[in-house]
Amino acid sequence: MYQENTSNYKWGYILLFLFFLIFIYGDLFPSTLITDISPAILDMNTIFLSIVLEAIPFVLLGVFVSALIQTFVKEETLARFIPSQPILALLPAVTIGAIFPVCECAIVPIVRRLIQKGMPLHVGIVILVSAPILNPIVFLSTFYAFQTDLTVAWARMGIALIVSLIIGGIVYSRFGNSWQLKEEKGHITHSPHTYRNRLSETFHHASDEFFDMGKFLIIGALLASVIQTFMARDLLTDVGSGFLAGPAVMMGLAYFLSLCSEADAFVASSFKGLFSTSSILAFLVYGPMTDLKNTILMAAYFRKRFVLSFIIIVTIVVYTVTLLFDLFYL
């Protein structure tokens, strides 16, 4: 295990050093090398870098919060704040999700660590799907992006709240309190008692988890950039103009674009007039709950069967609720 971690650190530091060299001395490359490259490849490169650079600060935030939970939060503390009744436990989970100012990139390691510490699976999943949407930063960005139609901002929060509770209930009915993480239950290293050692342990866990997640982030960003570059958007608008097809198309678009929840409202606002309000809401709710990048990050920690079931549950619930919203509210 020690040799494996040392190897990960070594390659991580090498990649960071190469990235730093390219960032500093990239303008010294011959211009002919750039002009000969296809514009589509340049667009893909730009999108890839924007996704990675946008996600890294939130991933760092997530792994540090995860490391702090690992080091300082005791299992007994979690048990005191979570009701023993499974349905009642959903309400504090949504509350925690609403006060966590993190996006979908950062919430995965946090939820994984909470589950390791003894949090029930369905409670952790409610936090995972609600935190990227219900936090104040996302509300303000959506409010600003849709200033001419404030219904979208409020409806996004309301639908996300309802969907999160339904998903939590379904996950509990389907999986109960079963262990769905890849590592064995109880496989947690406990922190020393002194403050200095705990601080050192926090940085150790954070750096270890950052390099562990980094490779999955890069793979997800690369796939998302390829799809964004070569996807025919005109075809999307033609197919997605219907009542049933619109939300489905926008959910698929949200999944593959893998946008950060703090910025996706500005992209969604560009589709206003092309898609219905319910379709735009499906985009805004579904993307932060599950997207291509997030799926790869989840697959690093959770069992594949659970990840697949999670995607199916989220897809069905978001699609159904947005259609009902269109029927009974709009």
Structure write-up:
This protein is an all-alpha fold and 330 residues long. The protein has one domain. The chain has helices at residues 2-25, 31-35, 39-72, 75-81, 90-99, 104-116, 121-134, 136-145, 151-175, 195-230, 233-239, 245-257, 264-269, 277-289, 292-301, 304-328. It is globular. The model is unreliable at 1-5 (pLDDT under 50). This is Permease. InterPro entries: DUF318, UPF0718. It is found in: Cell membrane. Belongs to the UPF0718 family.
Write the layout of secondary structure elements.
Layout: H1 2-25, H2 31-35, H3 39-72, H4 75-81, H5 90-99, H6 104-116, H7 121-134, H8 136-145, H9 151-175, H10 195-230, H11 233-239, H12 245-257, H13 264-269, H14 277-289, H15 292-301, H16 304-328
Helix pairs in contact: 3-6, 3-10, 5-7, 6-7, 6-15, 7-9, 7-14, 8-9, 9-14, 9-16, 10-15, 12-14, 14-16
